[in-house]
Structure prediction request, 422 residues.
Amino acid sequence: MAETVTMPKLGFDMAEGVLVRWVIQTGEPVQKGAVLAEIETDKATVEVESNFEGILAQQLVKPGDVAPVNAPIAIIAAPGEKFEPTAAGKTASPAPAGIAEGAISIPAAPAQAAEASEGRLPGNVRASPLARRMAAEMHINLEQVQGSGPAGRILQRDLKTYLSGARTPSRPAPAATKPLAPPMPTATTFATASPADQTIPLARLRAAIGRRMVESKQQAPHFYVTHEYDLEALLALRVKINSLLPEDEKISVNDFIVKAAALTLRQFPNLNAALHGEQVIQFGAIHVGVAVAVESGLLTVVCHEADRKPVRQIAAELRTLATRARQGKVRPEDIEGSTFSVSNLGMYEVEHFIAILNPPEAAILAVGSARQIPVVKDGQIVPGWRMKATLSVDHRVSDGAEAARFLQSLASNLEEPVRLLL
Prediction:
């Protein structure tokens, strides 16, 4: 029986997605679990796997089209099966008698809907869905923008060109005017003129980060607790372990921190939690989200059940997840389901900072760099390695005393790092 593939919901706040490209083309076989298409959400470009097996009989949306969550995007059928697509979310039904073998009967869409799918606007202007959305947000008249896409279609880059002040045939440059007075002679030119102002539209990811962070700061009463850690033993252990590993399998300080935080959360289930109405949901599993810097912002990838995995496995998984995130090839499970987050800016020589909660999580750990500083040991000033970490907590779920105890327990795992290998 033919199956309808719908636009998946790849996040709790996702309402629609943009189909970037089809990985499998019409008429090609589809295996269950195979990557079917790439979908752009507010967070990232995600590889969507097929839940069905058969032949990709029909693509119902084109690359660049926007489709709401649960809208039909494709039909997968058995070889030689007759069918016709039905309403969103329903399985395709067998075709009525008289339809040729393998034929597809698709109801004709109204002319207005057809124009929308082609990106055509009044005045016969063509624009991609992303360009239309950006134009609406920036109050730009698309009839004044010159498109560089197929058939003159307006793309995102055309809006950027328009906003940067570049002149197109539809926006001729004004005629030159005679200066009121000759310029003052100068003996030496010290600098060129300042560049023109630029207005840069927000990327989808950056806009999504903005919405979520505003929501977090407005709705969750944050408080912050900072602790300083002695990393002498952990750094020495890391050197020994990495001397036994190939270059592409070496373990970072952050991998140890993820493991240590996950183990500590076993003792503090109230911080591995989320507020839901008048109830606190304490999660049984510990899924640690790790912030990864990508081109247009930050993306949180998730190490599932981090407390149950050895540090070496955590390192390998996070390396793979970070690579996919930077390439824009993440999968839904890569970025969903975190119960606690770690944001590490240590590689940028940041001493310490505070992080905004990643809703709906109750806590996030902000990690600074490991720095060699003067410390007092046995009454003597000696060099020592120290690192500061700040825990941000939702005050509706927890309080300062519990946060402080968490950071103390975290010290036991970081300052006696053999615990992380047991």
